[in-house]
Amino acid sequence: xxxKISSLFDNEISERELDSLINDVTKKQENQKxxxxxxxxxxxxxxxxxxxxxxxxxxxxxxxxxxxxxGGFSSSMNSNATLKSQFNYWPHLFGxxxxxxxxFTFMNVNIQTETAPVLLVQDDIPSEILSAHYAHTASxxxxxxxxxxxx
Amino acid sequence: MNHLKVVNQVxxxxxxxxxxxxxxxMDPKPVNPxxxxxxxxxxxxxxxxxxxxxxxxxxxxxxxxRLLARMVRDQSEIEDIVQDSFVKAxxxxxxxxxxxxxxTWLYRIGINTAKNHLVSLGRRPKAMNxxxxxDVENFEDGDELRSIETPENTMMTKEIVATVNDTIEGLPDExxxxxxxxxxxxxxxxxxxxxxxCPIGTVRSRIFRAREAIAEKLKPLIxxxxxxx
Lengths: 151, 229
Hints:
- The complex is a heterodimer of chains A (151) and B (229).
- Chain A has 151 residues and is mostly helical.
- Chain A folds into two domains: 2-69, Arc Repressor Mutant, subunit A (Orthogonal Bundle); 89-150.
- Chain A has seven helices and no strands.
- In chain A, helix 2 crosses helix 3 (29-45).
- Chain B has 229 residues and is an all-alpha fold.
- Chain B contains eleven helices and no strands.
- In chain B, helix 2 packs across helix 3, helix 3 (50-68) packs antiparallel against helix 4 and helix 4 packs across helix 5 (102-120).
- The interface between A and B is large, with 62 and 85 residues.
C-alpha cells in the first residue's frame, strides 16, 4: 500500500486505483505523514526546501476553524450525481402524498360515522312532534334533536 | 552524476502526459496526472473532507509563498497572505469547477489577496502580468525562496537538508539513481525504466525504498516539531 502511495505521489497510478488511494492518504494519518516526507525529500532534492512546518500548521488551524464545506460543485462527473439526487426526491414526495391522501380519507370516514346517529334519533320521534318542530324552526340548525324532547 | 548526461538526451518533462507513453509494463490507462489527483482532492474537500484540503495545502503552500515573495518582501506579511489565500480558497472551494488547474485558481486568489493587502497599506503592488500568472505551474525561483527564510527556521532547514542529502548518499546505487532521476530530473517511471534497463515495477519499488529510507531519518526531526502530530 505504501508503495502505491509513493506512486500516487508521482502521479504514476492507474485511474481505477486513484479514488481508493486518495482515500487512504486522506483517512490515515500515517499516510499523510509519509506524503509530507515525500514532499520534503522532493523539495530538498530540487533545492527548494525551506522549513515551514509552522506556516502549514497556521494554515490548517485556520482551515479547521472554518465551517466544513459541503455539497459543492464537482465537475462533469458529478453533474449526473446531482441530477440523480434531484430525481431521488420524487419517491419521497410521492410517498408523502399517498400518506396524506390516506389520512384525509380516514378522517372523512370518521366524520361521517360520527354524524350518522343523529339521523337515527329522528326515526324514534313521532311524526306529529317532528312536524311541530320543523314548523317552529327557521333553519336546519336544530337538526340535532335532543332525545329528551319526547318527554 | 553520470546519469545526468544520459538523461539530457532523453525528452524529459515532469508534466508530460503519461498517456503518450504506452508500455506493456505499465498499468492500463495511466492518468495524467497532477491535475486529476488535485481534482479528486478538491472533490473530497467539497464533500467536507478537510484532510483532503490539507494535502493540497501541503502540496502548494511553499510554492504559493515563493510566488507571493515576488510581490511582498516582509516575511510575516507573506505568511499572513498565504494563510488568508488558503482560507479564501477553502471558503470558495464549492465554486471551483475544475475549468482551470487547482493551483492556477489558488494562485489567482493568492495574487489578488496580496494586491488587496498592499493597497490597504497604501503601497503599490508590484506588477504581475497575466503571462506570469498563467505560467505559475513552472514557477521556480530560489532567490525568492531564500528571501523568506528566517533565523528561526534556518537551522531546521539546514538540519533537514543535511539529513536528506546524507541519507541519499548512503543509499545503494540503484536506489540513489532511481530517486535522483525521478526527483531531480523529473523523469517518468517509464523513462527511468528505459534508462536503468529494468521493469517499471522495479523502478516503482526502488523509488519507494529510497523514500522510505529518507522518511525514517526525517521522522525524529519532524515529529518533534510538528504540533499537529
